[in-house]
Amino acid sequence: MATHSQKDAYLYKKVITIGTVCELTGLSERQIRYYEKRKLIFPERTERGNRKYSFADVEALMDIANKMEDGMQTSELRKEMQRKEEKRYDTKLRERMIRGQLNAYFNKRD
Protein backbone atom coordinates (compact mmCIF):
# COMPACT_ATOMS: atom_id res chain seq x y z
CA MET A 1 0.00 0.00 0.00
CA ALA A 2 1.35 3.45 -0.92
CA THR A 3 1.98 5.96 1.81
CA HIS A 4 0.40 9.40 1.74
CA SER A 5 3.59 10.99 0.40
CA GLN A 6 3.98 8.34 -2.32
CA LYS A 7 0.34 8.70 -3.29
CA ASP A 8 0.62 12.49 -3.57
CA ALA A 9 4.11 12.55 -5.14
CA TYR A 10 2.63 13.57 -8.49
CA LEU A 11 1.48 16.85 -6.90
CA TYR A 12 5.09 17.90 -6.37
CA LYS A 13 6.64 16.61 -9.60
CA LYS A 14 7.77 19.60 -11.67
CA VAL A 15 6.51 18.77 -15.16
CA ILE A 16 4.19 21.60 -16.19
CA THR A 17 5.33 24.38 -18.53
CA ILE A 18 4.65 28.05 -17.82
CA GLY A 19 2.23 28.20 -20.77
CA THR A 20 0.10 25.43 -19.29
CA VAL A 21 0.25 27.08 -15.87
CA CYS A 22 -1.06 30.27 -17.48
CA GLU A 23 -3.96 28.33 -18.99
CA LEU A 24 -4.76 26.59 -15.70
CA THR A 25 -4.55 29.68 -13.50
CA GLY A 26 -5.54 32.54 -15.78
CA LEU A 27 -2.32 34.34 -14.78
CA SER A 28 0.04 35.86 -17.31
CA GLU A 29 3.64 34.73 -17.71
CA ARG A 30 4.66 38.15 -16.44
CA GLN A 31 2.65 37.67 -13.20
CA ILE A 32 4.10 34.21 -12.64
CA ARG A 33 7.66 35.45 -13.22
CA TYR A 34 6.99 38.32 -10.80
CA TYR A 35 5.88 35.88 -8.09
CA GLU A 36 9.05 33.88 -8.72
CA LYS A 37 11.17 37.04 -8.49
CA ARG A 38 9.48 37.89 -5.18
CA LYS A 39 10.38 34.39 -3.89
CA LEU A 40 6.79 33.17 -3.61
CA ILE A 41 7.14 30.29 -6.07
CA PHE A 42 10.14 28.13 -6.94
CA PRO A 43 10.00 26.41 -10.33
CA GLU A 44 12.72 24.09 -11.49
CA ARG A 45 14.68 24.87 -14.64
CA THR A 46 15.41 22.52 -17.52
CA GLU A 47 18.86 22.37 -19.10
CA ARG A 48 17.61 24.94 -21.62
CA GLY A 49 16.38 27.23 -18.83
CA ASN A 50 12.65 26.60 -19.22
CA ARG A 51 10.59 26.76 -16.05
CA LYS A 52 8.77 23.64 -14.86
CA TYR A 53 6.01 23.70 -12.27
CA SER A 54 4.11 21.11 -10.24
CA PHE A 55 0.40 20.83 -9.51
CA ALA A 56 1.22 22.04 -5.99
CA ASP A 57 2.84 25.12 -7.57
CA VAL A 58 -0.33 25.72 -9.61
CA GLU A 59 -2.41 25.62 -6.41
CA ALA A 60 0.05 27.94 -4.67
CA LEU A 61 -0.08 30.39 -7.59
CA MET A 62 -3.87 30.47 -7.48
CA ASP A 63 -3.74 31.09 -3.72
CA ILE A 64 -1.14 33.85 -4.18
CA ALA A 65 -3.20 35.52 -6.91
CA ASN A 66 -6.35 35.43 -4.77
CA LYS A 67 -4.56 36.94 -1.77
CA MET A 68 -2.95 39.63 -3.95
CA GLU A 69 -6.39 40.45 -5.34
CA ASP A 70 -7.62 40.81 -1.76
CA GLY A 71 -4.90 43.40 -1.16
CA MET A 72 -2.09 41.39 0.42
CA GLN A 73 1.46 42.48 -0.37
CA THR A 74 4.13 40.04 -1.56
CA SER A 75 6.18 40.71 1.59
CA GLU A 76 3.18 39.68 3.72
CA LEU A 77 2.71 36.54 1.62
CA ARG A 78 6.38 35.62 2.01
CA LYS A 79 6.16 36.05 5.80
CA GLU A 80 3.02 33.89 5.85
CA MET A 81 4.82 31.21 3.83
CA GLN A 82 7.80 31.32 6.22
CA ARG A 83 5.51 30.92 9.24
CA LYS A 84 3.82 27.92 7.64
CA GLU A 85 7.19 26.36 6.81
CA GLU A 86 8.44 26.92 10.37
CA LYS A 87 5.28 25.34 11.74
CA ARG A 88 5.75 22.29 9.46
CA TYR A 89 9.37 22.01 10.58
CA ASP A 90 8.37 22.27 14.26
CA THR A 91 5.70 19.60 13.79
CA LYS A 92 8.15 17.22 12.09
CA LEU A 93 10.75 17.85 14.80
CA ARG A 94 8.19 17.18 17.53
CA GLU A 95 7.13 13.93 15.80
CA ARG A 96 10.77 12.76 15.58
CA MET A 97 11.34 13.58 19.25
CA ILE A 98 8.24 11.64 20.32
CA ARG A 99 9.26 8.68 18.15
CA GLY A 100 12.73 8.78 19.71
CA GLN A 101 11.29 8.84 23.21
CA LEU A 102 8.97 5.93 22.43
CA ASN A 103 11.82 3.94 20.90
CA ALA A 104 14.04 4.65 23.91
CA TYR A 105 11.26 3.62 26.30
CA PHE A 106 10.47 0.37 24.55
CA ASN A 107 14.11 -0.52 23.87
CA LYS A 108 14.92 0.04 27.54
CA ARG A 109 12.22 -2.47 28.53
CA ASP A 110 13.75 -5.28 26.44
Automatic annotation (TrEMBL):
Family annotation (SUPFAM superfamilies): Putative DNA-binding domain
Domain HTH merR-type: 15-83
Top-level taxon of the source organism: Bacteria
Keywords: DNA-binding, Repressor, Transcription, Transcription regulation
Pfam families for this protein: MerR_1
MF (Gene Ontology): DNA binding; DNA-binding transcription factor activity
Listed InterPro entries: DNA-bd_dom_put_sf, MerR-type_HTH_dom, MerR_fam
SMART domains referenced in this protein's UniProt entry, alphabetically: HTH_MERR
Matching Gene3D superfamilies: 1.10.1660.10
UniProt xrefs under PANTHER family: HTH-TYPE TRANSCRIPTIONAL REGULATOR TNRA, REDOX-CYCLING DRUG-SENSING TRANSCRIPTIONAL ACTIVATOR SOXR
Name of the protein in its database record: MerR family transcriptional regulator
Organism: Sporolactobacillus inulinus CASD
